[in-house]
Design goal:
The structure holds 2 protein chains of 2 kinds.
Chain A: H1 7-11, E1 27-28, H2 40-49, H3 63-73, E2 80-83, H4 86-97, E3 104-107, H5 113-120, E4 125-128, E5 148-151, H6 163-172, E6 178-181, E7 202-207, E8 220-224, H7 226-239, H8 246-257, H9 259-282, E9 286-287, E10 294-298, H10 304-313, E11 316-317, E12 319-320, E13 330-333, H11 337-350
Helix pairs in contact in A: 2-8, 3-8, 4-5, 4-7, 9-11
Chain B: H1 7-10, H2 21-28, E1 34-35, H3 47-56, H4 69-79, E2 86-89, H5 92-103, E3 109-114, H6 119-126, E4 130-135, H7 143-148, E5 154-160, H8 172-181, E6 187-191, H9 206-212, E7 218-223, E8 236-239, H10 242-251, H11 259-270, H12 272-295, E9 299-301, E10 307-311, H13 316-325, E11 328-329, E12 331-332, E13 341-345, H14 349-364
Classes of the chains: A alpha/beta, B alpha/beta.
Chain lengths: 352, 365
């Protein structure tokens, strides 16, 4: 079959999502899901929309949802794009804004999808090495490039870049696209949305999978200048007009509107994160300062890979990446207080 | 705009999907609108699919099962095929996209019927490929002309069987002969979106061909959007050799299908009774409409799907607007080069009657 494979397919190493074993019931702290269900208003909306009308195609323009999101961020509707998960928006962004043979920049340790998509769409890239504290070295993002993409907070480190630094990056890169992937921004960071009016080359991507507890529904959105949104629409409509299903459209509005529930859940997760981090530090772990719904941790004595397997035996799944520089780290999603208690007691047992 | 956009993207004219009912209603200030434009199932989905959605809600904060294990398991049993021969997509549209991304390199050619589903052309163009359109013959794919169009650059052949927007099909003998003839370094994408409606005995069994000819790269596509009444959920599947599917899985996003769609599709698949009911309703609707078209002396293309292509003898665009004002939405086919044709989805009994009345009125206007 290899003769049959396109040049692109040959070069791709697919993204590997966290494992979802079926052999027993695990405490899943490996895919950065929200441990809490979505707002009751969301559930109500899905129940209401799950009817005969599912026979009908959804609104391909997602008009109502775009209005609600625009209102939430005080933008206009034509500054909002909706995707089947933020992964899909990334997949549209690469061909829409980056060009073959014109290298873009992203961190060496980051969301592994960027490499996948760069290869898929023939985009060259230069990796910017994180510093020894896993911070993105902002000064290196000022070198000659044809586009920049990075998550804030970064994954899998959880490390956050303050808005002043983002502004610095944008000031030095006014002629190229800057894409900021804010999947984890709601857990203590400040969104760069406030900078959109000053920088027409800025695209912000967010998701409802994390802070709004809708990983199962696949919904992400992008915010930016209307010309950028039009670029995304061109790409989308050349592939597939109906990417977002009716149930997602019906309930996502409610997820955005119910700010009380949203604030409650994210504050709970932030509190649990801080408590868990303190405990882990007491156990001798080094914990990278996180503004996400996960912690990136390493222990000076106990190898991460071994801890990972031991935890699995005890019914707890965390994420381990066998990647240079981070192969002695574990990424631990913040679950409920109860789940984190079990996690911490188990870890304590495993450390002699 | 200062930001550079790739030239092949700039060259695209995006696909225009049918208007949602609410939009038509608002624009024309109509109380009731009958939508017979997008080949949706008028019976709706199986009630079991709705139940499955309610049941799946408690896990909605978790990522979907990226492998689609349970749905593939049901499909595998029903179709007697291994799970590694199945790929799931956010509608079959996404599987088409994945196939093009996986197999088509810039400069290579695809072959498709003209007119056929317009996405084949758009996808080719967006991947910097060249689409070779082969005109239909008597509203049916001209397989011998398609075979003759094969060059050293050909990589993918798209065949919709039954075809959209004509509703015609290629028969078993002809299809098998064609599939044998296509060289093994060319992918044949067999789009069977309307498979469940095609009850003709001569309808080709491409699935068996795939099972018996593992070295032939064929991708068979089916959907839950049509006969299963789940267009609103976006879910379809592809079948092929394990090699082919595993390559496409490299390009597929890990969580491309949402968990409610997975649950609903599985339940819909297992409700054979509902599917049979949908088929029967479609059959009687088809017979009724054909009879009426004959009576009105309107030429139509005999269809084995849930839609009929009809020549209304006047500009389809204007005819369509007349129907709209009468509260009926159909699809004018001018964009496909069929300037006097509309495509009409077969509806419920009442809807079909209302349609016939409206056509009668519109023709006289």
């Amino acid at each position: 079959m290899s003769i049959f494979w396109s040049e692109i397919a040959k070069q791709i190493t697919p993204y590997v999502p966290g494992e979802q074993p079926r052999d027993k019931k695990y405490i899943k702290l490996n895919t950065n899901e929200n441990p809490y269900p979505p707002s009751p208003e969301v559930i109500k909306a899905i129940r209401k929309a799950a009817n005969e009308d599912l026979r009908l195609y959804p609104d391909p323009d997602c008009n109502e949802l775009r209005c609600v999101i625009a209102e939430y961020f005080t933008l206009s509707k034509d500054q909002v794009f909706i995707g089947n998960g933020s992964d899909e928006i990334l997949a549209f962004s690469f061909p829409a804004f980056f060009n073959p043979k014109k290298p873009i920049l992203f961190p060496d340790i980051t969301y592994s999808f960027y490499t996948v998509y760069a290869k898929l769409f023939h985009i060259d890239y230069h990796l910017i090495p994180l510093d020894h504290e896993f911070s993105i070295p902002v000064d290196q993002l000022t070198k000659k490039n044809f586009g920049i993409i990075f998550p804030n907070p970064n994954a899998p480190t959880g490390k956050y870049l303050p808005i002043e630094k983002i502004k610095h990056v944008l000031e030095k890169n006014k002629e190229v696209m800057v894409i900021i992937d804010e999947a984890y921004i709601d857990f203590g960071g400040k969104s760069a949305v406030s900078l959109l009016s000053q920088y027409p080359n800025l695209l912000i991507i967010q998701t409802l999978s994390k802070s709004r507890s809708l990983a199962g529904l696949r919904l992400g959105f992008a915010l930016g200048h209307k010309d950028l949104i039009e670029g995304l629409n061109r790409v989308k409509n050349s592939f597939n007009s109906y990417t977002i299903d009716r149930l997602a459209l019906a309930c996502a509005k409610e997820a955005i509107k119910d700010t009380t529930y949203f604030n409650n859940i994210r504050n709970k997760i932030i509190t649990t994160r801080e408590q868990t981090a303190n405990q882990l530090i007491d156990f001798g772990f080094k914990v990278i300062d996180s503004k996400a719904n996960f912690l990136f941790i390493t222990h000076p004595v106990h190898p991460a890979e071994k801890l990972f397997s031991q935890l699995k035996e005890w019914g707890i799944l965390v994420r381990y990446f066998k990647t240079p520089r981070i192969d002695n780290y574990l990424r631990v999603t913040i679950g409920s207080d109860e789940q984190m208690d079990t996690f911490l007691t188990t870890v304590q047992k495993l450390l002699p | 705009m200062k930001i550079p956009v790739q030239q092949n993207i700039l060259n695209l004219t995006p696909y225009t999907p049918g208007k949602p009912i609410s939009e038509v209603q608002r624009e024309l200030n109509l109380e009731e609108v009958t939508k017979l434009a997008s080949n949706e199932n008028p019976c709706g989905p199986s009630p079991k699919a709705i139940q499955a959605i309610h049941k799946a809600l408690s896990e909605i904060h978790r990522y979907p099962d990226g492998s689609g294990f349970y749905l593939k398991n049901s499909l595998g049993k029903k179709l007697a095929i291994a799970q590694d021969q199945i790929i799931l997509g956010n509608g079959t549209n996404e599987i088409l996209e994945i196939a093009v991304r996986t197999f088509l390199s810039p400069g290579e050619e695809t072959i498709s019927g003209q007119p056929a589903f317009i996405i084949y052309q758009l996808l080719t163009q967006s991947a910097n490929g060249i689409n070779i359109p082969i005109p239909l013959q008597e509203h049916t794919h001209n397989l011998s002309a398609m075979a003759e169009a094969i060059t050293s650059k050909t990589k993918i052949i798209f065949i919709a069987n039954p075809n959209n927007p004509t509703g015609t099909m290629i028969k078993q003998g002809e299809m098998m002969e064609f599939l044998q003839k296509v060289p093994s370094n060319i992918l044949v994408v067999m789009d069977e979106a309307y498979y469940e409606y095609a009850i003709d005995e001569q309808y080709p069994d491409v699935l068996s061909f795939i099972k018996n000819n593992p070295s032939k790269p064929i991708l068979l596509l089916r959907t839950f959007s049509k006969a299963y009444g789940l267009a609103g959920l976006r879910i379809g599947y592809g079948l092929g050799s394990p090699d082919l599917i595993s390559l496409m899985n490299r390009v597929r996003q890990p969580f491309n299908v949402n968990s409610l769609a997975l649950a609903a599709a599985q339940a819909a698949l297992e409700d054979a009774g509902h599917l049979e009911k949908s088929r029967k309703l479609n059959q009687s609707g088809y017979q009724f409409l054909c009879q009426e078209f004959k009576r009105m002396k309107l030429f139509y293309v005999p269809s084995c799907t849930n839609f009929i292509l009809v020549d209304v003898g006047q500009k389809a665009k204007e005819f369509n607007e007349k129907l709209l004002r009468l509260g009926i939405v159909v699809r004018p086919m001018g964009g496909y080069g069929l300037t006097t044709y509309v495509r009409i989805t077969i509806g419920l009994e009442e809807e079909n009657k209302k349609l016939v009345q409206a056509i009668n009125t519109a023709i006289k206007q």
